[in-house]
Design goal:
By secondary structure, the chain is an all-alpha fold. The chain contains 4 helices and no strands.
Length: 71
Amino acid sequence: MQCWVELDKGALIQNFKSFEGLVGGERLAPVLKGNAYGHGLVETYEILSELEPKTICINYLSEAGILREKN
């Protein structure tokens, strides 16, 4: 049996904006540790980076390196 996860770009953007409205952009920090909880570190980052979050949380320095290469 194979498993997969589908990332809905529209839903992720809507969720980000909903939380941003609740706490404000300065306090919102999406957590992308652990391969973005299995959703794909780079794929999730590419969607969220369009929204210009002030902070992104990762777990390992290696994850920061991967994301830094994307900029």
